[in-house]
Predict the structure.
Amino acid sequence: MRGAVQTETGIAVTADNLEVARSSETILIGVKPAVVLAVLREIAPVTEGKMLISLAAGVRVRNMESISNARLMRAMTNTPTAISCGATAIARGARTVPDDVLRARTIFDAIGVTVEVNEDQIDAVTALSGSGPAFVYKVIQALAEGGERCGLPAEAAMTLAVQTVLGAAQLATESGKSPEELIKMVVTPGGTTAAGLAEMEKLGTAKSLIAAVEAATRRGQRMASENQ
């Protein structure tokens, strides 16, 4: 890659978008939604026939395909990719070929799990798994605060809350059981878990999480109308 700096890891880096696009067969667009189309216009002259994956929320494939003749796809991933525990959804464009889907899966399977959805479902993915980690952190924070209010030291409460969420998620993954089945494994009629679940139901905890996903989805849909 001309003008690029070679790092110790063997990765060539450059601040020249056009040079990156010219030298690559698979291109990831990882910029803010508001500038995706501007970046595409910049690199469009050298992207024809190449595979290009946008990582941005709220920018439709058809709008990108009107600028670039690349084989465009979209991917929505999340921050746990930093520890190879990401959740990614990919969506095809009009020019996507089967090999592109295989390549995209290979890329994102290396940092977590990958599912394929229709592009009109990406806004829901953005809300569920893209924004979802923040919702889960709120749950962790609340569990730890509940432990503190009941007399636990702050550090112990947070450690237990984090591990409880981690362990519950791992069990859900490995057991293959539904959330309802897993809940039944914990609940004893008239016991502590039943008392806690009853309070959650009274306060509408589940409804608030559903509403959070719905609100984030609506925002993603509005962003799509803004980025055309």
